Amino acid sequence: MIPDTTATLLVTCPDRPGLVAALSQALYQHGVNILDADQHTDTVAGKFFQRIRFDLARGPNDPQPGSMASGEIDRSDLERTVAEVASRNAMSWSLRYGADIKRVAIFVSKTDHCLYDLLLRHRAGELRCEIPLIVSNHEKLAEVATQFGIPYHVFPITKENKIAQEEEEIALLQRESIDLVVLARYMQILSADFISQFESRIINIHHSFLPAFAGGRPYQQAYDRGVKRVGATAHYATGDLDEGPIVEQDVIQVSHRDSPADLIRKGRDVERSVLSRAVRWHLEDRLLVYDNKTVVFA
Amino acid sequence: MIPDTTATLLVTCPDRPGLVAALSQALYQHGVNILDADQHTDTVAGKFFQRIRFDLARGPNDPQPGSMASGEIDRSDLERTVAEVASRNAMSWSLRYGADIKRVAIFVSKTDHCLYDLLLRHRAGELRCEIPLIVSNHEKLAEVATQFGIPYHVFPITKENKIAQEEEEIALLQRESIDLVVLARYMQILSADFISQFESRIINIHHSFLPAFAGGRPYQQAYDRGVKRVGATAHYATGDLDEGPIVEQDVIQVSHRDSPADLIRKGRDVERSVLSRAVRWHLEDRLLVYDNKTVVFA
Amino acid sequence: MIPDTTATLLVTCPDRPGLVAALSQALYQHGVNILDADQHTDTVAGKFFQRIRFDLARGPNDPQPGSMASGEIDRSDLERTVAEVASRNAMSWSLRYGADIKRVAIFVSKTDHCLYDLLLRHRAGELRCEIPLIVSNHEKLAEVATQFGIPYHVFPITKENKIAQEEEEIALLQRESIDLVVLARYMQILSADFISQFESRIINIHHSFLPAFAGGRPYQQAYDRGVKRVGATAHYATGDLDEGPIVEQDVIQVSHRDSPADLIRKGRDVERSVLSRAVRWHLEDRLLVYDNKTVVFA
Amino acid sequence: MIPDTTATLLVTCPDRPGLVAALSQALYQHGVNILDADQHTDTVAGKFFQRIRFDLARGPNDPQPGSMASGEIDRSDLERTVAEVASRNAMSWSLRYGADIKRVAIFVSKTDHCLYDLLLRHRAGELRCEIPLIVSNHEKLAEVATQFGIPYHVFPITKENKIAQEEEEIALLQRESIDLVVLARYMQILSADFISQFESRIINIHHSFLPAFAGGRPYQQAYDRGVKRVGATAHYATGDLDEGPIVEQDVIQVSHRDSPADLIRKGRDVERSVLSRAVRWHLEDRLLVYDNKTVVFA
C-alpha cells in the first residue's frame, strides 16, 4: 500500500463570513495541497460544516516558496495553526491522519451476513481500517473469525452479569485502542454508560426503515403492516434505542408474495450495503453529527 | 380506440386443491380465451387469490367446437357459471368488463402536482377511465380543471358544515356513478361514513413512507428526524387515518443539504409515480384487499 | 430440511384458447394441488408461456375423491399425462421435481466477490442447490473453496491447450452431473462447442449494462464515456459473446468523483446482486428462453 | 420572490497547490460570504474544478472591516479580481449572477410529456429561469404553449429548407437572448453549425441508456434485445449525434410482460426526471464540461 500522507479536517461552527477563506489560507500557508473540500451551511440552524482532505507530502518542486524543506509537514505545527483559526471562530474540529489507520471492533450475535460482508470488503480494500477483534455474546460465529484470522471474544450476557460483562468489553476495547464499534446485527442493547464512552463511535444497523418499525422483529412488523418496501438504517448508537443520528438508509421492493422469511432474505442485502456504506464513510472521516442528525460528505 | 372485449375476474377464497382447474375449466367451457392468469396463495392465512383476464370475443375460427356462434359471450351466462363455481368454493368474486369504463373523481385541495400528473397520464392513454369531475375544498385549482375540460366542484369544508357538505359530495358521486375516488393531496379527513360508502374504492396518497410519519406535515417530521430517504405511500382509505391497506410506496434519496422545501420538491416526484401506479392498478382490476393488506397482480 | 414434494412445470407453445384450462385440468385429475401458476402470452410472437408449481403430496383428507391412496403422485403417470396435453398443443415442456436438487459448478478466475456471494447465499439457504465443484484457470481462489469445503479444479488455459482443457472440463461436469454452470467472473471465453453442450444452462455475469460496453474492460469503457450509472448483466451464454438472452440487469449511480477503481468497487455490488438473482431464478425453474430473450416468472 | 444576491463562480484549471486558498481569499477580500463551495480534482487528467456560490449582499454588521459601505459588491471589481487569480493559474472561469435569470427555449416535436413536465416544474418554482418561447417543427403542441401563455414558433423542417429554417431559429434565439436550448424530444437533428453556436448550452434527452441504443427507435431496439431495464440520458448536444457529454441518466425496471408500448410508457417517467434534473443543474450553474464528460456539482 502506498504510504498515506493525507489528512482530513472536519470542522463545525456557527456560520459567519470568511470561514472557507480562513481555513484554506491557514492550510495553504503550511504548504499542504487541498485534494477535496466539501462544505455545508445549515441556514436554519445557522451552522457551518466543512471537510477538507489534503496532502501533507511536499516535493522539491513545491510551488510554496522557501520556508520549509521538502518532506512531510509537521503535525504539531499544523494542529497549532488549525487550533488558532478554530478558536477565533468557535469551531469544533478534528484532524485525522491517513497514516493513522483506524481500529474497528465488530460486534455480532448469531447472524453472519453483515459480518461476512464487512470482512470481505475489508479484505478487498474497500474499508481502510484494521479489525483486531470481533465480540459476540455467542460462540456461533467463531469459525468465521477464524477463517479471517481475527480474535473472537465471547461475552455471554445475562441480566445478572450485563454490567460486569460490559465493563470487560470496554476494557478490551480500550486495551486494543478501538476507534469504532460496529454493531453488525448485535442483538444486545448496550447500556447508556457503554455508549457514552464511545459517543459517535458506535454504528448500529437496524433492520427497518427508521423511524418505522423501531424495536424488535421489524420484518415481522413490516409483514403485518403489509408494506411494499422493506429497509435498513445505519445510525450512531445513543442512549435512546433506534433514535440515534441516521447515517444511511435504503429500501428494497417487496410484494404480497413475500413471506416474513422472504423479507428477511431481501432485507439482508439492504442491511449489508447500508451498513458498509456507513462504516466506510466513518472510516474516511466523512461524517459529522449535530442535532441528532448527520452531515455526510460522501 | 379498439373495442375492449376483455373481462377480468378477481377471486378470493379459502385455499383448497382444484381451484385453478375449476375456474379455468368453467371459463374454457364458455369459449373464452384466457389472456393473463395470476394467482397467489397466502399459506399463512390459508387464502387463495386469483386474477384472470380473458377475451369474450370469439371468431368464426374459434377452436371451441360447435355449441355457440361467433360473437361475444353472453354476460349473464358467464356470470351464472362463475357464481356456481364460487358458491361451491366459498369464493368472493368480482367480474369487470373492459367495455365498462370506470369513472373516477379526483379530490384536491391547493396542491396541483398529483392532479396534473393524473390528468396528463389520462390524456396520454395510461389510465383507462373517465374523469367526469374534480372535487375540491378550494377554488384554487379550478383553472387546471378548465384546461382539461373537466367540471370542478367546490365544497368548502368547515367544522360546522362538514357533514352536510359530505352528503352533497356523496350525492354528486352517486349521481355521476363514480367508481373510484382519488385523494390527490386532498387535505381534508373524510368521515367514517363517507369512507364506508366507498370501501376499497378510495385511494389516498400520503406524503411519507408509512408507517413512518403518519399524520400532518410529514416532510417536516422527516427533516427533523434527519432521514436519508423520503417516501410516499398510496393506500386505500379506511376509518383509521393513514392506517389503510398499502397499495404502493417508494422513496427517494435526500441528504443533509436538503431543506424542508427540498424534501417537498423531491417528494412530489415520488408522490406522482406512486399514486399513478396505484390508480392504474385499481383501474386494471389488479388489486385485492384482505387483512388490511393488498395483493397487487402487477 | 422438509422433504420437498413440489414440482414445477414450464411450458412454451403457440398461443391458442384453452391452454390454461387443459393444463390445470390435467394436473387436477392427478390430484396435485397447484401452489403457483404464472402465465404470459407474447401477442407479438403469438406464443404462450406458463409456469405451474404444484404439490405432489396428498394426505388422507385429500378432497379429490377416491381414485388414489394418499402419498406421493407417481412421476411417470404424471409425465405421461403432461406429454399427452403437450403433444395436442405443440408444447415444449419440462417438469422438474423439488426433490431433485440441482448441481451447480461455479467457474472463476482471480476475482472472488461473486464466488463468495454465491457460496454465502448458498450457505444461508437462499440458493436451493448443491455446489460440488469450483473450476478455475488460476490457483488463486483455491483457499476460498477450501473454506467452504468444495473441491477446486484448476484448468490453466492457453491458446494451445484450450480445446483439450475444455474437453476435460466437460468430462468433469458430466461426471459430476452438473445441471448449471455459473461463470462468476470467469475471464475465459468458452468455445461454441462447450456452450452448445450446456445450452441455456450457463449463466454469465457481464460487468456492464449490456448492450453498452460489451467486450473487455467495461468499467474503463464506462469511465471513458463519462456515464452516470454503471451496471451489470446476467445472461445465458451463447456462441455470440455478450449477446445471449438477458436474465437480469441493474445499475448503480456514479459521478465524476469516481475513478475507474471506484466504478469497479461500486460495480461489484451490482454484479453480486444481479448474478445471484439470475442463479436463484434458474434454480427455481423461473426462466424460459425464446427468441434470444427470457421470460422471468419471478 | 426575494431578490437574488448570490453569484456562482465555476472554474477549471490544471491542478496545483493553493487553488482553493487563492480563490477563497480573493472572494473574502471582497467581503462576499461563501454559501457553498464544492471542488473536484481529476487526478488522472490533472485537472481542478470548483464551484463557489456566494452572497454579494453585505449588511451594516458585516465583519469585513471598513473599506466598503453596506450594499452589494461591485460586479466589475469582483470580476477583475477573479480574472487576476485566473490568469495566474491558467483558469477558465465563468461568473453568473443569480439576479440574471437565464432564458430558456424549449424545442419539441409531437410528444408532450417532457414539455409539460418542464412547464409544470417551472411554474412550481423548481426551475429558476424564464421560458420566453417554444420552438417546434409541428403545430401539434401549440395548445400546450397557449395554456402556459408562452409564444410557440413553428419551423417546419424539410431536407430542402433545413439550413434556412435553422438560420431563422438561430436569429430568433439570439433576438430573445436565449441562454439554454432544451431539446425536449425534438425529433430533428440540429446541424453542426447550429450546435457550435450554442456549445454546452443545448441539452438533449435521448430515450435510452447511452451508449446503448443510440440512434432511432431506441425503445424498439431495447425490446428487440430483451433488456430488463430501459433508460434515458440527458446530454449536451455536440456534432456527434448521441455522443455528447452525459449530464444525467437513469433506468427503470421492465420485464417480458412489457410490450414496446409499455417501454415507451415507462420510459416517459425516466425521461422526465432525467431531463428536468439536467436542466435544473444547468440553470443552477452546477455543470462543467471537459473531455466530453461532465462534472456535476449536485
Write the layout of secondary structure elements.
Four copies of one chain form a homotetramer.
Chain A: E1 6-14, H1 19-29, E2 33-42, E3 47-55, E4 57-58, E5 71-72, H2 75-88, E6 92-97, E7 103-108, H3 113-123, E8 130-136, H4 142-147, E9 152-154, H5 162-175, E10 180-183, H6 192-197, E11 202-206, H7 218-225, E12 229-236, E13 246-253, H8 260-283, E14 287-290, E15 293-296
Parallel strand pairs in A: 7-8, 7-10, 8-9, 10-11
Antiparallel strand pairs in A: 1-3, 1-6, 2-3, 4-5, 11-12, 12-13, 14-15
Please summarize what this structure is.
Four copies of one chain form a homotetramer. Chain A is built from eight helices and 15 strands.
Explain the overall architecture.
Four copies of one chain form a homotetramer. The radius of gyration of chain A is 21 Å and the shape is globular. Chain A has helices at residues 19-29, 75-88, 113-123, 142-147, 162-175, 192-197, 218-225, 260-283; strands at 6-14, 33-42, 47-55, 57-58, 71-72, 92-97, 103-108, 130-136, 152-154, 180-183, 202-206, 229-236, 246-253, 287-290, 293-296. In chain A, strands 9-8-7-10-11-12-13 form a seven-stranded mixed beta sheet. In chain A, helix 3 (113-123) packs parallel to helix 8. Chain A has 298 residues and is of the alpha/beta class. Chain A has two domains: 6-97, ACT domain (Alpha-Beta Plaits), CATH 3.30.70.260; 103-296, Formyl transferase, N-terminal domain (Rossmann fold, 3-Layer(aba) Sandwich), CATH 3.40.50. Chains in contact: A-B, A-C, A-D, B-C, B-D, C-D. Chain A binds chain B through residues 40, 42-44, 209-213, 225-229, 231, 245-251, 255-257, 259, 291-296, 298, and chain B through 40, 42-44, 209-213, 225-229, 231, 245-251, 255-257, 259, 291-296, 298.
